[in-house]
Design a protein that fits this description.
Layout: E1 12-14, E2 21-23
Antiparallel strand pairs: 1-2
Length: about 80
């Protein structure tokens, strides 16, 4: 899902009703209006969820982002170059 203003890639997930991409923490689907159930933090580590113990922090020591599945930082967009300094 892309930001309508800056076109940056935003964290998203699939709407359980219409299957369109929606904002990760949205309460309602902007496409079909379905109410989206809140996600439990404990459920994140289950199958298909986020496993925080395996996240890779951005190599840039000034950034708070994590490396996504494309090998770039979710915040600054820089590619992963090794452990943060």
């Amino acid at each position: 899902m892309k930001c309508p203003h800056c076109k940056a890639e935003l964290p998203s997930r699939e709407c359980p009703e219409c299957h369109e991409r929606i904002p990760l923490e949205g309460a309602f689907c902007p496409h079909c209006g379905a109410e989206i159930p809140r996600r439990d933090a404990g459920a994140e580590s289950g199958e298909g969820g986020i496993d925080f113990s395996k996240r890779i922090l951005c190599s840039d020591g000034n950034c708070i982002g994590v490396i996504n599945e494309d090998g770039v930082c979710s915040e600054c967009g820089k590619p992963y170059t090794g452990e943060a300094e």
